[in-house]
Amino acid sequence: MLTVGLTGGIGAGKSEVSRLLVECGAVLIDADKIAREVVEPGTPGLAAVVDAFGEDVLAPDGSLDRPKLGSIVFADPEKLAVLNSIVHPLVGARSRELEAAASQDAVIVHDVPLLAENGLAPLYDVVVVVDAGPETQLDRLVRLRGMTEDDARARMAAQATREKRLETADIVIDNDVPLEALERRVREVWADLVRRAHQKMTLE
């Protein structure tokens, strides 16, 4: 089993790369998706978030009002740290459960947005960074996600620098390219990951 940490700045196109890797045969463990699951209504995670931030972060239906919470934590590093201290351990536990259920020869791709920020690179056999220039990121966030330019810039600024992220990389996937070129590059990377998985199994 080979564990891969897949990361990239917001708007770099990481979700597209993870989709292509799944098409190749990867087992995807999506930290963002799990982070949503662990704070669904009725979970201990949501109760802990409400304890920390108050009832105001709940939507009328009792679910977490993500935009509201986002506007609070992205403007305040200390509050973001509090939120992370609640959510990250829950995400880690669920990720380990999913990993344990995969087959021995699997290539497991962990989609981890804040890998560089939280110093998580040592947890994985290989770190893959999806990279795009800041102008590309900004354009995608405004054009595709409907963010205001100020909000997009604030989200980008809250993350690690591009240089810090690239320092953690074993493999870099450039996503300032047309989709066909990206698909080609992902297939190359997949072949490399499969080779590494076989090598690891031989050594174990």
Task: Give a quick set of tags describing it.
alpha/beta, Rossmann fold, globular
What is the mean pLDDT?
Answer: 94
Q: Give the distance, in angstroms, between the N- and C-terminal Cα atoms.
A: 10 Å
Radius of gyration: 18 Å
Identify the CATH homologous superfamily.
Answer: P-loop containing nucleotide triphosphate hydrolases
Family: Belongs to the CoaE family.
Pathway: Cofactor biosynthesis; coenzyme A biosynthesis; CoA from (R)-pantothenate: step 5/5
InterPro entries: Depp_CoAkinase, P-loop_NTPase
Function: Catalyzes the phosphorylation of the 3'-hydroxyl group of dephosphocoenzyme A to form coenzyme A.
How would you describe this protein?
The protein is α/β, with parallel strands linked by helices and 204 residues long. It has one domain: P-loop containing nucleotide triphosphate hydrolases (Rossmann fold, 3-Layer(aba) Sandwich), CATH 3.40.50. 54% of the residues lie in helices and 13% in strands. It has a five-stranded parallel sheet with strand order 2-3-1-4-5, sandwiched between helices. Helix 6 crosses helix 7. The protein starts with a strand and ends with a helix. The relative contact order is 0.22. The mean pLDDT is 94.
